[in-house]
Structure of Ferredoxin reductase:
Amino acid sequence: MRRRLTWRAARLTGLREETDSARTLVFQVPDWPGHLAGQHVDVRLTAEDGYSTQRSYSVAAPADGDTIELTVERVPDGEVSPYLTEIIEPGDQVEIRGPVGGWFVWRPESTSPVLLVGGGSGIVPLMAMIRARRQAGSRVPFRLLYSLRDPGRRYYAEELRRPDAGLDVGYLYTRAVPDGWPRPAGRILLDDLAEGGWPADFEPECYVCGPTGFVEAAADLLLALGHAPEHIRTERFGPTGG
């Protein structure tokens, strides 16, 4: 039987700015049941007049006791993300429910090579997988292909620059590239996945996350390269009002 998800009080204990419009929030959630890398949670805000609203956010780090990390991108005119990215301060509380999802997850006992393909804020659950691999001391080889509009929108920039044995990171830019960047700006292409991913005969587990159009395009390209459908796991998001 499925366990019933309940709302829990979550207290903000720390935050880190990722970009001009995104930040990572660290919450303490008493009696948190734990979660897997790739899962997400619901966050609920309630106003003094009783009005409440909620949004779903991917968890950005593996389970660590009663601590949860979320990375949130501000959505213009949103109801939840502006509060989480501009107003909330350490000590403030929200409500969190979860974890949610069981398909788009990576488990440390897995031995297959892993290809992570992220578009924009779709990097968040993929970063949880990278961190879970490191936390577990896994030697499974990971490759990350991270597509974003421009270098200023990189999440986890410093962390992804650090040497990490068995983790290869490649970037694609769709609007503007750094000076001297060898690839022109543009959307993800077959050659990008052929060069930056794993050969299909390695039978890697492929995780693709980002906006719907990006996810559909990347999944189709992986299929064209011969990857088996059952090895391609996707998570997509679209406008929700933030």
